[in-house]
Every structure is written in C-alpha cells, then in structure tokens.
Amino acid sequence: MKTTEKILLNYDPEKENLLPVLKEISSFFGFISEKNAQKIADYFSLSLSQIFETASFYDFLKVKNSPQIFIKICSGTVCATIGTRKIIKEIENKLKIKIGDDFNPRIKLETASCLGHCGEGPIVIVNGQVYKKVTVSSIHEILEKYV
Fold first, then answer.
1. Which of 22, 29, 37, 139 would be 51's cystine partner, CB 3.0–4.6 Å?
2. What is the pLDDT of residues 67-110, one digit of tens each?
C-alpha cells in the first residue's frame, strides 16, 4: 500500500523534486491534505505555507477533497439572458446550497463566465457531463441522476 512516506522516499529532498512529489500525492490521494502537506514540508525542510503556496499555484493540484457532486453553470451573457439565474435558484432550493459555499462537502455549485456552447444554453455541467438547453423543469431530472 502506498503511503505518503513511501512516496517521499522515492525522491531526494531537493526543491526540484517538490512538484513531482505534490503531483504524485495529489494524484494518489485525490488531494493534498494538511497532514500530508506537513509531512512534505518536514521532508523538504520547508514551511507548510510554502507547500500550500506551491500546490495552490497549479490547477492540476488539489488542496481540497473534491466533492461527490460538482455542478458548474454558465453565467455568460447568452446563458444569463435565457434563464441561468432561475436554474441557479432552482438548484440552490432543491439542494439547499448556495453558489460558492463550502458548507456541504458533498456538493459544490459554481458559475463560469462562459462554457463555450453559446448557441445551446443555458449550459450546466455536472461531474463533467455537459447538459445543454437546460430549463427549470429539466434541471430536476438532471439532478435526480446524481442525488
């Protein structure tokens, strides 16, 4: 079984190895926990803040555990004019969450300025699955697949 310690022992504690270690730990565990970050900091003789500063710089490294349900909604001009706000309210009411809140670790709701499907909006992406021409009524069917 892989552990943080076993991963660290595959690398010399030199700064050029920090990013490969962060990649491997993030990939294996799904994110870099504070406990693992502290082990990395100790191994490389760096501060915990240096580890998180480095890890948070790269989009491919996760410093938070990913939610089970990740919903992204287009809030670009076209989508906004054809009903995004109503869909957001419907999701917030149904799932009892708000955009950007981290209170429910299972579900994350975010907006994006454009998701690249302007002629097919409103666009909602749930766990990577793209839904086009979403309506207030169809969002319930979509969410039922995930909750």
1. 37
2. 789 999 999 999 999 999 999 999 999 999 999 887 888 899 99
Q: How far is CA 110 from CA 18, 19, 102, 118, in A?
A: 30, 28, 11, 18
- HSE value, Cβ hemisphere, 13 Å, CA-based, for 143: 22
Q: Which residues touch 44 (CB under 8 Å, ≥6 apart)?
A: 13, 14, 15, 17, 18, 21, 51
Q: Cα–Cα–Cα angle for 100, 21, 104, nearest 5°?
A: 20
b/e code 42-68 from CB counts within 10 Å (16+ = b):
ebbebeeebbbebbeeeeebbbeeeee
> What is the C-alpha end-to-end distance of the chain, expressed in Å?
32
Query: pTM of the predicted model, to two decimals?
Result: 0.62
118-147 pLDDT, tens digit each:
899 999 999 889 999 999 999 999 999 988
